[in-house]
Amino acid sequence: xxxxxxxxHAGTQYKFxxxxxxxxQGHKVVNFGxxxxxxxxxxxxxxxxxxxxxxxxxxxxxxxxxxxxxxxITANKHQGVRAALCWSKELVELARLxxxxxxxxxxxxxxxxxxxLEYVQTFLNTPFEGGRHQRRIEKIPVx
Length: 143
Prior knowledge:
Layout: E1 2-7, H1 12-24, E2 28-31, H2 43-54, E3 60-65, H3 69-75, E4 83-85, H4 89-99, E5 103-107, H5 113-125, H6 132-138
């Protein structure tokens, strides 16, 4: 799979761990995030991830900021993007099963590195259920 990743200063450490984790599994990772812990503006690093998902240049996106909220809000401005803010494995599973989330937003200041890696693995391994959920997803875009 090809996966885009983006982060602000709060997510840098986890981003490097996630990239290593994904590459070890044979995934190609496109890094749009900052590589430092110097304060930056998260939209500058999240929009490129969302655009690459929107344009179908990548299969999925992973975004990180302190709370995960700003990153998710930013990503969800793009058509066809369904970024889900997740802080538990169950939320990750439901985001994929029911919402066909294509971007995982992680709150770097509220989860451990171990959890971040577990959530990424769950996100990539959980299929979309379709069925009644497909109908609901089709109603998301503003007509």
